[in-house]
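We store chain and fold; example below:
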Amino acid sequence: MSKKSKMANIELKISQEPDSPMMKLIEQTGIKGIVPDVVKAIMSPLINLIAHRDGDDAGSAFNKSITLIAASDPKNQLELMLATQLAMTHITLGKSARLLDQNYKDVQTINSLGNLYTKLSRLGIDQINTLERMKGKGQQ
């Protein structure tokens, strides 16, 4: 019997109060001209992933998403998209590690999950390097 996947229904009302997490993220990125709904659209896959993984409601998943993205300190829309992808890679990497731990007796599964974990790790490193280059920190 397999579990059916259920994705979170993102029905968030974006507060445009200056102290709201969304407005703080928009201010941090320096993209004040962007509509909060666009930021929400960029973040939706991450919010769904967190809500699905943790069983959180959309609001809690949204707050976790803001925290993960803010850690990358995005300064424009492109960096915001990359930071969101990096956060998704990080969440998926953690899930693959848990799956690897749960299936340690099956060699074929270990090989498959180990390959996935390795690829996700490399992807995360590539995303970090790309983000650093975009910020001008990766140049010699």
